[in-house]
Specification:
Length: 97
């Protein structure tokens, strides 16, 4: 042993719209609830799909059709109405001398 602390494992998931692999915390998880879909934020039980949280392009109907088929328009509306638009980060202020 070298005495260094091993890096903590970060689970990766794939966005169903753009197919990009990202850390799980950067994605929104959707689960099927009855007839529709819901954004799952806390308890993560059962099967679900992931969509980029910071990319409105992934919330459009067309990229969602592969995963949701006929329900793609409803899922797109759910993401657009229940997800805040990503805000650009404020410019960094230089440190004072």
């Amino acid at each position: 042993m070298t005495g260094s602390i091993p890096e903590r494992h970060t689970p990766e998931r794939t966005c169903v719209a753009c197919r990009r692999k990202r850390p799980q915390g950067e994605l929104l998880r959707l689960t099927q609830q009855g007839e529709g879909w819901a954004i799952q934020q806390r308890q993560r039980t059962g099967r679900g799909v992931y969509v980029c949280a910071d990319s409105p392009a992934c919330w459009q109907e067309k990229p969602l059709r592969r995963a949701f088929r006929a329900q793609a328009s409803a899922v797109s509306e759910l993401l657009k109405t229940q997800t805040p638009e990503p805000q650009p980060s404020p410019p960094e202020t230089p440190p004072r001398p």
